[in-house]
Write a structure and sequence with these properties.
single chain; 120 residues; alpha+beta; three-stranded mixed sheet; 15% strand
Length: 120
């Protein structure tokens, strides 16, 4: 089935679609191995879209272009999202604009980074 056909297909009526909040909560288990803070609090998640057929599209970035663990972070994100009830598939796309800066971090992320001795 083509991606367009998948996006137009509907989830069964008795199955509830996941919310953006559920997806973000699931992504909190995914950590950048160089900065031991989850990708949500680091501000790496730029967008989450839950389609009517249960496919979840995520736009995210990394702290640096060419990050050597990009594939690992992507795989971890896909696995975390697939555990959410109602998710039928995941597309994680990396975007580089706008570039990530520490200003994108949540207050919780900044607090955690300060605990590691960083001044943010």
């Amino acid at each position: 089935m083509s991606e367009e056909a998948q996006s137009q297909a509907k989830a069964p009526e008795n199955e509830k679609l996941p919310t953006e909040e559920q997806i973000l909560e699931a992504l909190k288990v995914v950590k950048d191995p160089e900065i031991p803070i989850n990708v949500v609090d680091l501000g790496l998640i730029y967008g989450v879209k839950v389609r009517p057929n249960g496919i979840v599209d995520v736009d995210m970035t990394l702290t640096a272009i060419g990050c050597p663990v990009q594939d690992m972070i992507k795989a971890d994100a896909e696995l975390a999202i697939m555990r959410v009830p109602g998710v039928k598939g995941v597309n994680v796309d990396f975007v580089w604009s706008p570039p990530w800066t520490p200003a994108k971090m949540s207050e919780e992320g900044k607090k955690q980074l300060r605990m590691f001795g960083y001044n943010v």
